[in-house]
Amino acid sequence: MNARKQYKHYTQIVSMFIVYTGIRAKKNGIHTEQEFLNIMNKEFTHKDWNNDRLQWPAQLEFKDWVLPDDFIFFTLKDWIEYSGAGSYETFEEAQREA
Asked: CA 86 → CA 4, 11, 40, 90, distances in Å?
């Protein structure tokens, strides 16, 4: 089921809402799939881990993945699980959890 998300100047079709309150999250914690993936890619996939690897060793441990190299293979489901986010079909469900 798709929901429509209204913005001031456009309408976007959204199939899932993600509640994520970590690094670079929006204040209300509710993101579209694309917004969430953009954050994950910017903050994890495309991050320069050579400078930060020693400061954040816990971020580089997840299941049997070889991180940070394997971030490029993460699916939306992997990102949700890795980040501790939640996914919801409707905006109302996401609001209750945010």
From this structure: 19, 23, 14, 12
